[in-house]
Amino acid sequence: MPRTARFKRWTVVTVSLFIILAASYISVTNGTFDMTVAEVIKTLLRIDPAPEHDLVIFDFRLPRIVIAILLGLGLGVAGAVIQGIVRNPLADPGMLGINAGAGSAVVLFMFLFQGTITGASFGSIMLMPLFGLVGGLIAAAFILLFTIDKGRLDSQRLILVGIAVSSGFGALTLYVSLKMNPSDFEMATVWLSGSIYNANWQFILAMLPWLIILIPLIWSKSLVLDVMQLEELSALGAGVRVHRERLWLLLFSVGIVSACVAVSGSVGFVGLIAPHIARRLVGIKHRHVIPVSGLIGMAMVVVGDLIGKSIFAPAELPVGIVISIIGVPYFVYLLFKTRV
Asked: Where does the chain cross the membrane (predicted)?
């Protein structure tokens, strides 16, 4: 049985990597300016590079693919952790208002410091995740304030409070956006829809440290997350300081989500769907669920971005909208399933 389970896990990993590589291959070779595989390889290996090939690959396509991979990884891992913390398969950073809180803070940053998407300095791009972290923590504080009753987290109230918090921050974001000048407002609107069309290497450098530091910290607490699936008294009896560990894991998750939102806007449903599929494929142990959720999230965002930029070409559909089209029916399915 362990050998069968191990084989299944490696099969899931292999298939996910194949989907990511296939979608990345199509993204890097196809578009308004089509390129052959040989041209791509020569450009990457610096063999007789052509200026137009450098421009297409290094300035447009490759940063976009890398951002999509990092975004899916971060949101998938954060979703798995949040679902583990609250013991609710319907929990998601977007539905709990964490995305909205981080997005509001970043839009406020744009408004106060003129940090537009296209004209931002490197310093302001690096500061965006910090502002997003503050907004995400404020959202998380509101959620904990209204869902913790006598020291225990009420998972029944969690979704309702999350919707209320998300709506409140959404209203704040709209108000601040309407105060912007027209060009900034247009860019903020596109950004909030979950678009990565303007990805660049500075955005990658802005989010990469957060993922490199926080994801290993989260994975190191996989056993703690497993124990937290028990009743709170049982978890305390097993020696887990539930409240402290929950706050640390929530802080790590908010940090990852904030970094993702700062560079891509609000991309919902990845943190809901990826962990749910991962648990069905590899079981409930977070040592396996966390990395597989990241891989499935990567595949979702890379494929979603490919669909968004291909199906309506030359126009583009933001990846956040593409994933929402898939995610809303899936959420309704999960909602009815949990009720039954």
From this structure: 7-26, 62-82, 94-113, 125-146, 158-178, 198-219, 247-277, 289-307, 319-336
